Amino acid sequence: MSALHDHLRARLLAACQSLGIDAAVAAPLLRLDPPKNRDHGDVAFGAFQLAKAVGKAPPALAAELAAAVAADAVIESAAAAGPFVNFRFRRDALARDVLGAIQRGDAPYGRSTKGGEVVCIDFSSPNIAKPFHIGHMRSTVIGNALCRIWRHLGATVHGINHLGDWGMPFAKMMTAYMRWGSETELHQSPMRYMFELYKRYSREAKDDPALDEAAAKHFQALESGEDNQERRMWQLLRDESLKAFQGPYARLGVTFDHVTGESFFEDKMAGAMQRVTAAGVLEESDGAEVVWLKELGIKEPCILRKRDGTTLYHTRDLAAVFFRESAYRPTRILYVVGAEQKLHFDQLKGVLTKMKEPVAQAVEHVPFGLVLSRTEEGKWEKFASRAGNAVFLDEILDEAVAKVREVIRQKNPDLPDADAVAEQVGVSAIVFNDLKNSRIKDVKFDWDAMLTFEGETGPYVQYACARLSSILRKAEAPVPDVAAVDCAVLADAERVLLTMMDFGSAVQRAAEQSEPSCVTGHAIALAGEIHSYLRDHYVVGQEPRVRDARLVLVDCARKLLTTGLGLLGIAAPERM
Ligand code: ARG
Q1: Would residue 280 be called left, alpha or beta, if left means φ above 0 and alpha means ψ between -120 and 50 degrees?
Q2: What pLDDT digit, counting tens, does each position of 402-431 carry?
């Protein structure tokens, strides 16, 4: 991780060897984490796994290791506390290492250049025939953060938009458009217009079974692969939807490496089905082709072909796994999709497991909770906009921006570039609110709470960045190199420095657990520490020795907050 950590790990390894533990056994188990309580030390080593590997009691091993690591120029002390060894770094070494690495942009503060993982991240993936669901907003925001976090760790990332642009839901939209649609109206406001058509279809299909029958026929015609009216219609609706999504994607800083929707797998499903057949796991059931997964504890079979010969969502996901496997050679394939699709992904992984496909290991569903909004009576309920569960992402973003613009008008009417700042802060507030808590928790959509400049919000962290920038602007001197300053001055900044040092493990945890909230939590903590440090430690107007050391601290805090926010897909304004 950092040079401090590397040094510590080397000393720990030597201590293990002095206790007769094989280096090859010890090395992979020497994981260093922030201690539960900072009063105990700067970093902690939990001896559980190593103790198990060498057949000792964890507290006994911790005590032996603590005794075997003597103080040196970097390590001030090592002390056992139960199964942990807590280490304390010398304060000048801490400042020099952390600030130097941040200034140079070394990993983990800057992007790592090594990292063998290849990670496919399937996210956003709206259905173009249906309005954007609020869940797609969460998937977009979480997936975007995971792409950035993995890239930071040096992984090769494939961000994939698996658009829902095929299958029956799409055929229904097509049917509605063919009956009632007008191309002029479609071009005017594609998403809203399609949403009207969708609602009309749902209404009328209740009393008119002919509609669903027609949709099934249109889908068959589409799947026939011929160049027919259905195919042209498909192209038109797809193009219009994609164009419409582009606006909100750009505002959220979201890009994809591949926009390979379900339709992309049209010609790859036959091959996938052959592979399932060859593996001997496909069975006939009531005219349909299915894979039973009872032995894996999954009651419902995975249906891969319907009685009428058409394919399903699952068939395309299976073809997509095989395609990604051969095209990208991924070590992980993450699906950032709401928790309500758990069964779907259990079945997908189940089929691959039953087929004894090694890629089954890589497949991982990354579920998340609901979005809740407050009812008139003040109760929290599943998010409902005026249009039901459908959302027009641009409308939500516009509302946030308008609210921030109003706050700026009141608090800082002379702010230059107020519109641009409102855009950055408004959009980020929504993103930050989504990524603040563990993803499986429901997100409360509460304008007041997410837009306040105090507490755990995006505006609060952005405000910290702007404040740091303002100090750097006002300082009468450029930021010096850390090697040129007296780090002893920063003995009073240990809380800031230790929080900075935790960045690496926060990012690592965020990736391992697909949990961007680890990065959000770090940004909140760092913003809080630097705010309170600056309450009674001035930079501007201090004697040069003090000023210079603090300038380095302020500059590094600003850099690291900007990096952290960047990993979440959030911009850091210079002023606000
Ligand atoms: N389009 C789907 C939906 O809106 C989500 C797709 C997720 N990705 C996947 N590979 N199944 O429900």
Answers
A1: left
A2: 999 999 999 999 999 999 999 999 999 999
